[in-house]
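Re: that chain you flagged

S.,

Sorry for the slow reply, it's been a week of failed gels. I finally had a moment to sit down with the sequence you sent. For the record, here it is as I used it:
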Amino acid sequence: MAEKHFGEAVASEYALGNRNFSDRCWNNLGIAYDKQNRWSEAKDAYYQSVKIAEQNGDSSSVMQSYINIYKLEGRYHDYQKAVDGFRNLLSYFGRNSDTAYIAL
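Prediction finished late last night. Pasting the structure tokens below so you have them in one place:
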């Protein structure tokens, strides 16, 4: 049910005009796919969320989407890719002095 609603939401006119809403819907759609073990679709949805969040300059959403992506990588049993991804994420937020998200 969540997949259906978030899928409709990201395709809505409201989402086209409200990038923050669209970003959150893509991230939640990724979570819905993830719960169904539809990993490829989940990863695509998370990356769509990252793209929008980066354009918005929303570091909180970027962080959350990347956390979801790397958790997903870990479930693929590609633990090294997940660990490397978290290291890169930590480095990114360290370079930007975004200490609130480094702690997360």
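What I noticed first: Residues 71 and 88 are 14 Å apart (CA to CA).

Talk soon,
D.
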